[in-house]
């Protein structure tokens, strides 16, 4: 079973979905606003927002006849937690490569 960090990365892998997500840091927006910003139909935006909600990347708040979508920090935290597990091995590999390069330079 994938963690939510994996769901977040999968959700953001789609370019249109990522564009919808990237249109939200400026503040809450309606489906119609997002559709106009991204250049796709409201129906398509709604489908993408469903996936983003499931990954906890966006949250919805009713506002009269509209529903406003905004960023949900939980999904980003999940993605960060997922990616941070790889840092120790990435840093160790970088350190080994640096040591190897230094040794090669010393041999010249």
Name the beta content range: 5-15%
**Rg, alpha carbons:** 20 Å
Oligomeric state of shown chains: single chain
Low-pLDDT segments, ≥5 res:
none
Rounded average pLDDT: 91
Helical content stands at 55-70%
Going across the biggest sheet, name each strand in turn: 1-2
Number of strands: 2
Largest sheet: 2 strands, antiparallel
What is the structural class? Answer: mainly alpha
Distance linking N and C termini: 50 Å
Number of helices: 6
> H/E order of the elements?
HHHHEEHH
Q: Given the C-alpha coordinates, what overall shape results? A: elongated
Protein model, in words:
The chain is mostly helical. Helix content is 67%, strand content 11%. Helix 2 crosses helix 4. The radius of gyration is 20 Å and the shape is elongated. It starts with a helix and ends with a helix. The mean pLDDT is 91.
Key terms for this structure?
108 residues; mainly alpha; two-stranded antiparallel sheet; 6 helices
List the helices and strands and how they pair.
Elements lengths: L3 H10 L1 H8 L8 H8 L3 H13 L3 E6 L2 E6 L1 H12 L2 H21 L1
Helix pairs in contact: 1-5, 2-4, 3-4
Quick description:
This protein is mostly helical and 108 residues long.
């Amino acid at each position: 079973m994938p963690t939510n960090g994996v769901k977040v990365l999968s959700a953001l892998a789609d370019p249109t979905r990522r564009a919808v997500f990237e249109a939200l840091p400026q503040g809450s927006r309606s489906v119609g606003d997002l559709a106009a910003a991204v250049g796709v139909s409201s129906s398509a935006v709604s489908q993408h927002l469903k996936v983003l909600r499931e990954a906890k990347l966006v949250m919805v708040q009713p506002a009269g006849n509209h529903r406003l979508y905004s960023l949900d920090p939980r999904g980003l935290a999940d993605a960060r937690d997922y990616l941070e597990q790889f840092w120790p091995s990435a840093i160790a590999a970088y350190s080994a490569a640096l040591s190897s390069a230094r040794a090669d330079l010393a041999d010249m």
